[in-house]
Amino acid sequence: MPIAVPASAQTDLRDAAPAEGDRARRTSLRYLNFFRLVLAGLFLVAGQELGLGKESPSIYLSVAFAYLGAVLALGFPDAARRFGFERTVALQVVVDVIALSLIMWVSGGYRSGIPALIMVMLAGAGLIAEGRMVMFTAALATIAVLIENTWRYVGGKQSVDFLQVGIFCAGFFGIALVARLLALRAKANASLAAERGAALAKQQAVNEHIIRDMRDGVIVVDARGRILHANAQAVELLGMAHTAATGMEGLALKDIDESFEPMLKPGEAPGVAPEGRLLRIGPGGRLLRCRAVAGEPGSAAAGDTLLYLTDFDEIQRQLQQIKLAALGRLTASMAHEIRNPLSAVTQAAELLGEEKRADMQARLVRIINDNARRIERMIRDVLALGRREQAMPEALPLAAFVGEVIDGRVFRAPEELPLYAVDIDPALTLAIDRAHLHQILDNLLANAARYCSGEPGAIRLWAEVLPGERIALHVQDDGPGFDEAVRAHLFEPFFTTHPKGTGLGLYIARELAEANDADLELASAGPGAHLVLSAHTRP
Description:
Number of strands: 12
Order of helices and strands: HHHHHHHEEHHEEEHHEHEEHEEHHEE
Strand content: 5-15%
Structural class: alpha+beta
Distance between the termini: 44 Å
Strand order of the largest sheet: 2-1-5-4-3
Low-confidence stretches: 1-14, 266-273
Number of helices: 15
Mean pLDDT: 76
Shape: elongated
């Protein structure tokens, strides 16, 4: 089921980015206003000593006082709240251009260096306003500078180098264009950062939801062995139900239980025992499987250790229930399978006591012996399931081994000799346990001999080389084969189509094949029963 983040949380994530951006722009505007305030103060305190206003000191002082008042009025009472942020920035730029142009007019024109200050104001305002109206303010500054220098040229006060003036005007537009591009880039980066931040916050919320609902306990421990985070399940498994999950944060893990200390030693965490360790933890001595995973070197989690706690007692209880259920099914199946031959033995024994004819007695004795052997074979197969030995694969010469198995069957039943047609390259080898392969082949050949037509060559055995250094051994008879209903249950235990079969032969054969990293499958095509055993050529 998908985990949903609450709609309110998603709205907060979406609204947080614009709010953070507005906060940053307002902070930048305050810094720019502080620069304006310092500049206006310098105009009043040291402007005339720097050579400003020499052509008309009275006008200069009036403009300087007016500029200081405008800076204080538009900047520090936070006029942005009354007029709006964008309008306030535009109004401040207009005031800057007018005031600086007038100061330039009474200070000797462009040679006073005032155009450089105009460029600074244009750049700052362009970045803060995110590129809005920057071309307008650049055009306004250009017009003001051209009017001032034209007036000066027409009045004949001094010569004007219109080339230099043009360079300044071009600089206004260049500064404005750069400021606009930088503002757009910063806005795009801020939007991307906000989206990634929202995605990260959403992912964090999902991760917290997953960790909170996990059946396993999760503890995050730093390099000093102190708990950074723990979920509610970990608190319960540690027998600290009286403590909230947040209450464990900051505690030393070894103070909770000394058994944890080896898990946190360098080199003891992940590499040594990836499946974890079994520890007795807590006042109740609960058995827990503890698995440590160290943070990747170079990552943000470097030095931290993630501990997974699993209630092993609960796992054992579940396994015990599964074993009991399997044992119950096995017992029921065996009781059903044994009941039939046992009733035949009982009935034959009763008749044997009443029968006086020798031929009938011999027949009844044969019935008793056949069913007794059937019961014994069934018990032997069931016991083989429980005490299957570990496979010891070796490279067996396939052709020679198949010949030995066939010779053994022919020795017991000479009439089977003409049935077999073998076509296997003597150079081929099969990596499998010798005893297991003998049991698998004997079972496959017994089934083939039981269902084939009895004609010479009715059972064919051949081998083929598969990719990946594997060999496939085919065993096929010319019998009736299996319909789709039988194919689906062919390898299930106690499933059989023969009245005297136990239903365990093919099941045990597949189990033995899997123990040797081999596959036993029923081929999908071809007449009769066609089974394929595939395994590696070498162990």
